[in-house]
Specification:
The longest helix is centred in the middle third of the chain and has 38 residues, at 176-213. β3 and β4 (112-116) form a beta hairpin. Helices cover 64% and strands 6% of the residues. By secondary structure, the protein is mainly α. α3 (71-84) packs across α5 (125-140), α7 crosses α11 and α8 runs antiparallel to α11. It has one domain (2-303). It has a 4-stranded mixed beta sheet with strand order 1-2-4-3, with helices on both faces.
C-alpha cells in the first residue's frame, strides 16, 4: 500500500514538474507572462472539471434512479457509504447490457454512481457490492478530481505544440520555434503516458479499498465476469473508458458463460492473459491494469502477504 502511494505521488510530481518546466521555458523564450500561461492552464482545468459531469450524462444512456427502484441496491449503497465514511452518491442506471460501473462528479459530495443493467444481471449481490465498494474507493480518493486535473496537462501541451507549429512565419524566431513545438509535442506524448500510468495505479488503489471494505474474493469473481465476458457486450460509449471498472476497449473475450465460474476456470483465463506478450506490451497505452495483475494483487491481500 505504501509503495502504491509513493508511486502515485512521484507520478503526480513528475507530471506537474514537466508541465511547469514547459510553461516556464516557453514563457521565458517568447517573453510571455508566466501568470498568463498559468491562468490558461487553470482555465482549461476548470472548464474540464465544470463541464465533465454534464458531458458524461449526455453521452451515456443514463437516467437517475428513483427511490422506489431497486430498494436492495439503495440499501447496499447506503450501508457501504456509512462503512466507507463516504458521502452518499446519487444513483443512476445506464441502459446497456454491458456489465460495468463508474462514478463521476465535481467533488466527493457531488458524486454520481452509475451502474449498468448488465452489471446487475451478471453479478450476484456479493460481487456487485465489491464493485460498488471499488467505485466508493474512487470517491474516497477523489479520483474524479485528480484525473480531471492531470488529464488537462497533455491537452495543454498539445495546444502549445499546435500553436507554435502554426505560428505565422513572420512571427517565428527562426528555426527555434519548430524545435520548441517538437519539445511540446514530446511533452504531450510523455505526459499522456504518465496520465495513463496514474490511472492504472489508482485502479489498484480502489481495488485495495474494496478488498478491505468487502472481500477480495468477491472483487476477483466480479472482475473475471466483467472483463473476460465483456468483449461480446462492448460499451457503446468508450470515450469515458477511464471511468469504468474495466476497460471496454481492451477486455479479452474468454468466457461464454459468466454466471458461474469455477476456480480452475479463473486460473485458466488468468494464465492465458499472463502469457499474452502483446497485451503486456500494450498495457502502457491502457487506462486499466491487466486483469491478471489485479487478481494477483487481490489474492496477495486475501492471503495477507
Amino acid at each position: 500500500m505504501i509503495k502504491l502511494w509513493i508511486s502515485m505521488s512521484l507520478t503526480l510530481l513528475l507530471l506537474f514538474g514537466i508541465l511547469f518546466a514547459l510553461l516556464a521555458f516557453i514563457g521565458s523564450y517568447f517573453n510571455l507572462s508566466g501568470y498568463m500561461l498559468v491562468l490558461m492552464a487553470f482555465l482549461l482545468v476548470f472548464f474540464q472539471w465544470y463541464t465533465g459531469p454534464a458531458i458524461i450524462r449526455l453521452t451515456t444512456r443514463m437516467r437517475m434512479l428513483k427511490k422506489n427502484e431497486y430498494p436492495w441496491l439503495w440499501e447496499m449503497v447506503k450501508r457501504l457509504s456509512k462503512k466507507s465514511n463516504v458521502p452518499m452518491p446519487r444513483l443512476a442506471i445506464v441502459e446497456t447490457s454491458s456489465p460495468n460501473a463508474f462514478v463521476f462528479g465535481r467533488t466527493s459530495k457531488d458524486a454520481t454512481l452509475a451502474i449498468t443493467k448488465g452489471l446487475i444481471q451478471t453479478l450476484n449481490k456479493d460481487e456487485l457490492e465489491a464493485v460498488v465498494a471499488h467505485e466508493f474507493g474512487h470517491i474516497k480518493h477523489k479520483d474524479m478530481i485528480v484525473m480531471t486535473i492531470v488529464g488537462a496537462i497533455p491537452i495543454l501541451a498539445y495546444f502549445i505544440a499546435r500553436s507554435l507549429l502554426f505560428t505565422p512565419t513572420d512571427e517565428r524566431r527562426g528555426g527555434n520555434t519548430l524545435l520548441f513545438a517538437s519539445i511540446a509535442f514530446m511533452v504531450y506524448v510523455i505526459s499522456n503516458l504518465l496520465v495513463l500510468a496514474l490511472s492504472r495505479l489508482r485502479e489498484y488503489y480502489s481495488d485495495y479499498f474494496s478488498a478491505t471494505v468487502t472481500r477480495p474474493s468477491s472483487l476477483i469473481n466480479a472482475l473475471v465476469k466483467i472483463v473476460y465476458g465483456l468483449a461480446q457486450r462492448r460499451m457503446e460509449n468508450v470515450g469515458i473508458r477511464s471511468f469504468y471498472i474495466a476497460d471496454p476497449l481492451t477486455a479479452p473475450s474468454e468466457l461464454s458463460v459468466v454466471q458461474r465460474i469455477s476456480s480452475s476456470e479463473i486460473e485458466r483465463v488468468v494464465q492465458r492473459e499472463k502469457k499474452n506478450v502483446f497485451m503486456k506490451l500494450m498495457e502502457i497505452f491502457q487506462t486499466h491494469p491487466l486483469t491478471y495483475k489485479r487478481i494477483e494483487a487481490l489474492r496477495k491481500l486475501e492471503k495477507g502477504v
